[in-house]
C-alpha cells in the first residue's frame, strides 16, 4: 500500500494513522470503511455509491474549541449523517404529511445557547456585535452542518475462495484518518473509532458510526461488536461517574429493506419514516427499550441481528440485504429523577449498511437478489431520508 504524509503506528499493532493512501481494492483484498461523525445539531446526509459527499466549506470546531470557516480536508468531510427521533403512533396521520411534535432534548435551543455563549458567530465571520442577530439565521443553518468526521479503513484477510490479485490492481490514492490491517482485532477497531465518543453523548452529542463498503468486505463483522462494547462503557459511566444523576439508556433497532422500515425488536413490525417541521426524521411506532445491564442489551442485539434480512450474493454467502440501524439513546428527566418524563440527552447510532454491489458481483444472483441489490444501492444514497 502506498503511503504519503506522516504516519504514526501503534506500538503493539499494525494500525497506521493519518494521511494514508489506499485503494478500495488493495493488495487483492476488499476494504470497508468505518465512518464516525459527531454532530452538534441535526443531521442530513449523502453517500453516493461509494464516495462520501462533501461540501466545499463548513464551520468547523478547532482544537481550541472555536469554530472557524475553513476548507475541508479530504479526511474531514462534511458528511451529514441521519438521525431519528421517536414518535408515538398517531392514528390520524396521513401518508407523506408533515407533522409537528415536541423535539426531544436538543436542537435549535441548545445550539443557540452554544453558539452565543461561545461567540462563535462573531469569531468565525468577524462581524460586529450588533450584526449578530441578523446573521444568526444563516449561521444557525451553517452551524447545523458542523460535523467532525473520522474515516477509518479496515482491511480483511483473504478468504479461501479469493486469490491475491495485487499485481494486477490499478493504484489510486485516497486519504483516510486511519487504516487498520488484517491482524487488527475488533477491540482495537472499537478503541480507534467509538470508545472516545462514548463520554460525549452524556453532553448533548449525537454521533453516528457506519460501515460502508462492497458486499463481503467485512462491514457486519466489524459493526456487530461495537454497540455492545459501547453499551458496556455507557453503563459503566451511568453507574459510576454519573451515578444517581438520573441518566437512562434506551436501545432501539430497525432495518431498511426494499425501501421499507421494520422494527427488529418488535416482530419486524412495519414502521413509517416521516420528517417533521424541523427536518427531523421521525420513526413512527419504533419501540425503544430501557436497559440497565449488559446481558439485556446483548439479548436485544442478538434478537435484532437474528431478525435481519439476509441472503446470498456472489461475493458473500451470508449477505446483509438491509441497512440496519441500532441506536443507543441517553435520556434524563429535567430534575434528574424518574418522576418526570425523560428527554434525549445524546445518542449513538450504529448503521450497518447493506453492501454496495457492483454488477460483476451480482451476475450469479436471482431476480430477487438483483432487485435487492438495486434497492440497496439506491438507498445507500440516503435520498429522502435526511
Ligand atoms: N477482519 C476480518 N477477519 C476475519 N474474517 C473477516 C473479517 N472481516 C470479514 N470477515 C469474514 O468475511 C465474510 C464477509 O464479512 P461480512 O458478512 O461482515 O461482510 P459484509 O461487508 O457485511 O457483507 P454484506 O454487505 O454482503 O452483508 C464473513 O465470513 C466474515 O466472517
What is the number of E strands? 21
Which small-molecule ligands are present, each listed once? adenosine-5'-triphosphate
Largest sheet: 15 strands, mixed
N- and C-termini, Cα separation: 35 Å
Taken in chain order, the helices and strands follow as: EEEEEEEEEHHHEEHEHHEEEEEHEEEEH
- Domain tally: 2
Q: What portion of the residues fall into strands of 2 or more residues?
A: 25-35%
Mean pLDDT: 66
Radius of gyration from the CA trace?
Answer: 21 Å
SS-based class: alpha+beta
Count helical runs: 8
CATH architecture field of the largest domain: 3-Layer(aba) Sandwich
Helical fraction equals 10-25%
State the CATH superfamily name of the largest domain.
Kinesin motor domain
CATH topology of the largest domain: Kinesin
Report the uncertain regions: 1-29, 39-136, 142-147, 379-386
Pfam family, one: Kinesin
Family: Belongs to the TRAFAC class myosin-kinesin ATPase superfamily. Kinesin family. KIN-13 subfamily.
GO molecular function: ATP binding; microtubule binding; microtubule motor activity
GO biological process, one term: microtubule-based movement
